[in-house]
Amino acid sequence: MLANGATLEYKTTSGNPSSYTKLEGLKEIPEIGSDPEKVDNTTLADKQKVYEMGIGDPGDISYKFKYDNTSTNSPYRVLRKHEEAGDTLSFKETLKDGTTTEFDGQISLKRTGGGVNGVIEFTLNIAVCSEIKITDPVNA
User: Hey, how many other C-beta atoms are within 10 angstroms of the C-beta on 37?
Assistant: First the structure.
């Protein structure tokens, strides 16, 4: 399946949470998931090492966007205000097949540089601070 058609939406988590708002200009979505840490749980009676799967770290979750700061509703401007306030936001990524991934996180933004015939983009980095919930699409 192509990534084309994927969307990312956000809403605030404090006060009276609003409905999700779609972030325009999404260009790239990240890997989602984690590799649990292998934890040594070997006892003195074991003949070989024994492991259990520990907790995972989702690592850096980064979305790439087309840079646009031409209006008060531009994703770069809106997200920058949330970054400056230190807000925790809820996110929902939806793939073309209807699979959704939801999580909360604090954000930071980074604008790219540019050159001749080079586009300017910005990266939305999210420090995940909740469990990641994946919902399968409803079969028709």
Answer: 12
* Whether 11 contacts 20, CB under 8 Å: yes
8 A C-beta contact, residue 82 and residue 117: no
What's the chain's average pLDDT?
93
Query: What is the pLDDT confidence band of residue 75, given thresholds at 50, 70 and 90?
Result: very high
Which residues does 56 contact at the CB level (< 8 Å), separation at least 6? 33, 34, 35, 36, 37
**C-alpha 98: how far from chain center:** 17
Q: CA 6, 119, 78 angle in degrees (round to 5)? A: 60
Locate the domains of the chain by residue range: 7-30+60-135
CATH (one of 2.30.110, 1.10.3470, 3.40.50, 3.40.1710) for 7-30+60-135: 2.30.110
pTM, rounded to two decimals: 0.88
